[in-house]
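User:
I would dearly like some help making sense of a protein record. Take your time, and here it is.
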Amino acid sequence: MVRLPASELFKFAFNLLTNLEIRDKQFKIIFDSILDKVCPFCGIELFDAPTAPREDLDHYLMINKYVFAGANLSNLVPIGDKCNQGYKKTKDIIYRNNGTRRRAFYPYNPVNVSVILNNSEIFANGNLHNWEVEFDINCEEIETWNDVFDIRNRYKRDILDVRFKSWIRIFRDWLQNSNLEGDLVKELLIEKLAEYILVLSDLKLNGVDSLRLPLFKMLKYQCESENQKVILFLLDTILL
């Protein structure tokens, strides 16, 4: 008997946050405080500035089920449109589809997660890839995050598959302007990959470009591991 009036009360309170422009103010405070202006859930969708139509301010715990968190600012998180409307939708953060509990990250406690691609497979022609997207943190919260926002698939399908060749071309252009001394053999290739990784690190890339760093770390790792497919692919591509 309490649930329905409680739900109406907190939905009303949530609407007040809009009318009083509290949601706009909250988004501006968060936008101004973060270095990379990207969705914190996928790390790739760029946020528009606060003067643009505001990004979604999502109920991390959905209001229809967790009504008492409906107007709690700790439960309202800036999120990219794709993450919110395309992937999260009405998924329950703290319960799996089978009804069992799961752990989830608290959205206002930042956790830095690095992507690792070292176990991916690059075929000799460079047209087919078997991306293995891993993270430097191994915990239940990571799997909840991946399940709710489909992170691994999005990274593979929308970034790595699409941008791999263009990122290799950029590396080739950089390499050809880097005063190579002698023939480009495996040892020099590894040396140049290491140098390029430092360049990418210094650039502090964000959004979709943030995956360039783990990609080239993977290529260096594969070359050091004597993966002849990768070595030949890179040498053939660079020497074109």
In short: The mean pLDDT is 89. Residues 151-176 form the longest helix (26 residues).
